[in-house]
């Protein structure tokens, strides 16, 4: 996971060197690329919206443990995609009848 502001700093430092971002949630929404189909610029990476996987992880956990009723979720709100992933997890929890316990974990360096 990139440090907050690191991708933007790299983008601002060069327009020609490719910047590979291995994991980022919705680069269009946060303004790093114009669109997924035509990103423009020099930022690249596997892309995808990891927030969609958050709900799927909870579904798989419920499938593996059918009596699952409560799940603790550790997340860092400073990570760019974390709030979106948290909302997706909450949405899936409501559909599955699972109660979530939110535990924000903040990196001491941020």
- Classification by helices and strands: alpha/beta
Looking at the structure, what is the overall shape? elongated
Largest sheet: 2 strands, parallel
Task: Please estimate the helix content.
Answer: 25-40%
Structure description:
With 110 residues, the chain is α/β, with parallel strands linked by helices. It folds into two domains: 1-49, no CATH class; 51-104. The protein contains three helices and four strands; from the N terminus they run H-E-E-H-E-H-E. The chain has helices at 6-13, 51-64, 82-96, and strands at residues 19-20, 43-44, 70-75, 99-104. The chain has a two-stranded parallel ribbon. Strand 3 (70-75), helix 3 and strand 4 form a beta-alpha-beta unit. The two termini are 13 Å apart. The mean pLDDT is 83.
Quickly list its features.
15% strand; 110 residues; elongated; alpha/beta; two-stranded parallel ribbon; 34% helix; 3 helices
Describe the secondary-structure layout.
Elements: H1 6-13, E1 19-20, E2 43-44, H2 51-64, E3 70-75, H3 82-96, E4 99-104
Quick structural gist:
By secondary structure, this protein is α/β, with parallel strands linked by helices.
